[in-house]
Amino acid sequence: xxxxxxxxxxxxxxxxxxxxxxxxxxxxxxxxxxxxxxxxxxxxxxxxxxxxxxxxxxxxxxxxxxxxxxxxxxxxxxxxxxxxxxxxxxxxxxxxxxxxxxxxxxxxxxxxxxxxxxxxxxxxxxxxxxxxxxxxxxxxxxxxxxxxxxxxxxxxxxxxxxxxxxxxxxxxxxxxxxxxxxxxxxxxxxxxxxxxxxxxxxxxxxxxxxxxxxxxxxxxxxxxxxxxxxxxxxxxxxxxxxxxxxxxxxxxxxxxxxxxxxxxxxxxxxxxxxxxxxxxxxxxxxxxxxxxxxxxxxxxxxxxxxxxxxxx
Length: 312
Hints:
- The chain is α/β, with parallel strands linked by helices.
- It has one domain (3-299): Vaccinia Virus protein VP39 (Rossmann fold), CATH 3.40.50.150.
- 46% of the residues lie in helices and 15% in strands.
- It is built from 13 helices and nine strands.
- The chain has helices at 3-23, 31-34, 43-67, 83-89, 103-115, 117-123, 152-161, 183-196, 213-224, 238-245, 259-263, 268-275, 283-291, and strands at 72-76, 96-101, 131-132, 137-139, 142-146, 170-175, 200-207, 253-258, 293-299.
- Helix 1 packs across helix 3 (43-67), helix 3 (43-67) crosses helix 13 and helix 5 packs across helix 6 (117-123).
- The model has no long low-confidence stretch (mean pLDDT 93).
- It holds the Pfam family LCM.
- InterPro entries: LCMT1, Ppm1/Ppm2/Tcmp, SAM-dependent_MTases_sf.
- Belongs to the methyltransferase superfamily. LCMT family.
- Its EC number is 2.1.1.233.
């Protein structure tokens, strides 16, 4: 895996999100403190990011509705994600919130949090104490940890430092993360989580249906940027997503939806509102894009069995 190329995808995605936020696709009061410049993209890309953010949020809120303030959230490959701050603005109480990424990414994020009062004031409101190292931050219920996800021994050690409760209902989030990791390392990670967290829900946003011309173009574009997509074999279709990520790794169950289904699960009024932001000339291109990404959830135990994204 070319780590530098993968790290660069975080910057690119964050810039795209900032641009979509500036255009009004969704509200995020914090991304501008982490990313100074948006990257202008085509309307179908902005709608794709809207569907991604809102689709993952939909699962997050279903999880929170079920478990309440006992919730523990672990965001894998979190990059410059602002979920923690957005949940705080909604007055949602999280027992423990842990972000994990490459040490070089978390070092930069910790630095930006430390330097910005709008970010910092949200993470130390509990007891006023912030513990910082070169790559990690511990502040009340918020933790930002520099870890290579391929190293489960180091991951376990860092989770202990973050006072991770293995028995708490825990939501794992991974957005375009596992596809960059070698399959044997993903299997080891997913088995580790399944073995440690008996009451877990995992939401994975990733490519799917990659065995066609559109998928070939997507892969070539990423390879041209140095990303070799080590885990692409699990992205052939929704079935391989479920089986390779969860079924083969001791999870209790799984379910997957392509982003067409996710997008049309949103209320019609919401979709109509965001579709007025930018004129979309090629509706067919948007549908093709949606067909090649998915949200796949897996669960341990029976707490989250039946938590389906298409439900209102």
